[in-house]
TrEMBL record:
UniProt keyword list: Transferase
One Pfam family here: NTP_transferase
InterPro entries: NTP_transferase_dom, Nucleotide-diphossugar_trans
Protein name in the entry: Glucose-1-phosphate thymidylyltransferase
One GO MF term attached to the UniProt entry: transferase activity
Domain of life (superkingdom): Archaea
Domain Nucleotidyl transferase: 2-242
Amino acid sequence: MKAIIPAAGQGTRLYPQTHTKPKAMVRLAGKPILGHILDSIGETRIDEVVIVVGGPMKEQIIEYVNRAYGDRFEFEFVEQENAEGLGHSIYQTESVARGDELLIALGDMLFENGFDHFLSDHDELPATDGSIGVKRVDEPQHYGVVETRNGGEVTRLVEKPSDPPSEYAISGVYIIENSDALFDALDYLVENDVRGAGDEYQLTDALQRMIEQGRTLYPFEVEDWYDCGRPDTLLEANRVLLSRTETADPESIDSAVIIPPVDLGNDIEIEESVVGPYVSVDDGAKISKSIVDDSIVGQKAVLDGVNIEESIVGSNTEVHGEANHLNVGDNSSIHL
């Protein structure tokens, strides 16, 4: 079985953080989003991973995964030159993934119950061509939606419908047994220029075509997921992940108060400050005379005399003076 991670998205909802890094490389709880995804995949039987990359910053992803996970997985990198939807992204992997069993995991989604749990749920289903992670939501019109036959076999999928046929939203994880049928469906969409929501090639439409061609799909339940493509849910995921980790006893920090859970990187300096709870501080950051709560502080960032909460401070950024809520991109300098 192979995992496919589409990670070529521009990440406009995370501006300014994604002006200087791919969305999958935005850091929380001690490592990039992509690192947390690979950690979860590493708990499964999967040892081959295909990552879809694109844009001028794709080398950041390639360098990171080869350095941090090259001894755990065999990687293939496939380029998506034009961002034309999730279906189009998966379509790019046909030459390296057709014929394999696949786990498709979006590059900006983290899950409360991990991929090994999903694979176990899939294995308990009746014989099927694939399965889809779903969750009941309050506003299904904002998602891809699944309709089932009495809670069992999927009968219809539709992307962001104005009149949703059910409350079950597609949550961004898919397990495909019959990848030949999936790529046949994607081929049809692209070759016939069948575009869906957002004028893009949608994976949802390809799965719907599989059903129309007589293939069977089943749902499995996802408890909670975190769409790390937005600042508020990125901070929420940071809180959840930090709550599962043990805060290391910081060395050489004797003039600061550290309130767990926090993640402290290497070569950081914290003086006359209160840091935590739910704070991730990247390598080389300096914090002085500040109060930092429920925030993500980037690599080599400098915070001096600030009071921040629910904030994201980019790498190589300096913030001096009073503050409250911030979302500051990399390489910035702010005096308040």
